[in-house]
């Protein structure tokens, strides 16, 4: 088994479902994951949360949720769902706490997969 695939499985990713969407192309999966991890959306989300901007935080967390879902990054996707739903209604009550949970999961992904 490819080391990349094994790392993703150990992380908790839905590798089989994602590879089905990617027509079995592991190299494409790697490229898309690399692009996701290099993207600045997570930094922009942090800036929005720190500024108390629920609308912009919603846009960034919603975008991250979509990509995480398409990449089968289930643990991160689940944290993002928890963050997106309150932000959808501009509820800032737990915005920082939820962001910190997303950030922690994002860093765990980076540590386990890179």
Automatic annotation (TrEMBL):
The lineage of its organism: Bacteria, Bacillati, Bacillota, Clostridia, Eubacteriales. Coiled coil: none annotated. Residues 44-111 form the HPt domain. It comes from Eubacterium oxidoreducens. One of its GO terms (biological process) is phosphorelay signal transduction system. This is HPt (Histidine-containing phosphotransfer) domain-containing protein. Pfam families: Hpt.
């Amino acid at each position: 088994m490819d080391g990349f695939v094994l790392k993703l499985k150990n992380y908790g990713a839905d590798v089989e479902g994602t590879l089905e969407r990617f027509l079995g192309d592991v190299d494409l999966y790697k490229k898309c994951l690399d692009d996701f991890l290099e993207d600045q959306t997570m930094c922009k989300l942090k800036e929005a949360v720190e500024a108390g901007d629920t609308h912009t935080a919603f846009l960034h967390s919603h975008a991250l949720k979509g990509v995480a879902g398409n990449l089968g990054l289930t643990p991160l996707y689940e944290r993002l769902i928890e963050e997106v739903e309150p932000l959808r209604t501009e509820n800032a009550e737990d915005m920082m706490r939820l962001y910190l949970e997303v950030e922690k999961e994002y860093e765990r992904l980076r540590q386990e997969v890179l």
